[in-house]
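Section 3.1: Structural characterization of target chains.
Under the original work plan, the team committed to producing a structural model for every single-chain target entering the pipeline before any wet-lab resources were allocated. The record below documents one such target. The sequence was received from the expression subgroup and is listed exactly as submitted; it comprises 129 residues.
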Amino acid sequence: MNDSVVILYHGEQVSVPREVADFLEQDRKREQAQEKQDQRHLSRSEFETVLFCSDCVRRPVEDAALRNLQLECLRKAVDDLGDQGRDLVELRYGQGLTMEEIGRIYGVSRAAVSKRLKKLHEQLRSSVK
């Protein structure tokens, strides 16, 4: 059973595992949502600039502060995953190992690793909101 999907990448059709296609789709949606949010902030900033005749100098500082808060929140959420959860996240995203490689390390199937990572992803998502 081949669990791959054909996607368009740099104008060419490429076959990738379904999890990669799903990740890329989630990332695309996240970027679209961020662009919409940025457009709203930009519009509001432009309005404030015209209304109050001031430069929008606060944005980079606010962005940096927000990014630091998000990173701190994510660090805490990862710490709350427990030792095995942190190890799995480190192996997959820190070291870039495949699920098959992680499965070999723990002596479990790729599906078991995939299921556990999905559960961890859901935990992180609910913790970071």
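The chain has a mean pLDDT of 79.
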